[in-house]
Amino acid sequence: MKNILVIQNHSPFDGVKCREALDTALIFAAVDQNVSILFKGDAVFCLHPKQIPDIANLKDYFKTLKMLELYDVENIYACKHSLVERGLADTGLYLDCIILEKERMKSIMLEQDHLVNM
Q1: How far apart are CA 105 and CA 87, in angstroms?
Q2: Is residue 46 domain-resident?
Q3: What is the count of structural domains for the chain?
Q4: Can you tell me the distance from the alpha carbon of 66 to that of 102, in angstroms, rounded to the nearest whole number?
Q5: Angle at 7 between CA 6 and CA 8, to 5 degrees
Q6: I want to staple 39 with a disulfide (CB 3.0 to 4.6 A). Which of 13, 43, 54, 93 is the partner?
């Protein structure tokens, strides 16, 4: 079993990029890989607790984020710097995430067999 970290960088309102990252994580998990996912940059908006995708004419993929738990993706990370920069540090997040400082984020990346940057 390989350790794979899917790094999500894009806003949930930037086309289908967030959905593709989520699908990638779920596919790796379905074939019994040890998958983690990291939300950083604008991707932390995926974790905002009050998403209303209908306003932007988007499919509600946010409910699909809960599938990570069903696929045993236990390590769900969020970049603290990204959360603070975007005013999300003091909000409850949609998923139960491990909030990472930059140094810890780097060490977790070094522990992986593969990084999938999306």
Answers
A1: 20
A2: yes
A3: 1
A4: 25
A5: 115
A6: 43
Place of tokens 């999938």: 116
Please report, as a single letter, which amino acid is at residue 69.
Answer: E
User: 41: domain CATH number?
Assistant: 3.40.1260.10
Which domain, by its residues, includes 36?
Answer: 17-80
Structure tokens at 91: 């909000």
The 3-state DSSP class for residue 77 equals strand
Give the residue carrying structure tokens 């990029």. Answer: 17
Q: Give the residues of the chain that fall short of pLDDT 50.
A: none
**Taking a C-beta distance cutoff of 8 angstroms, is the pair 78, 38 a contact?**
yes
Nearest to 43 by CA among 76, 9, 14: 9
101 within a domain of the structure (yes/no): no
Q: Locate 21 and state its tokens.
A: 């990252």
Report the phi/psi class of residue 72: left, alpha or beta, with left for phi > 0 and alpha for psi in -120 to 50: left
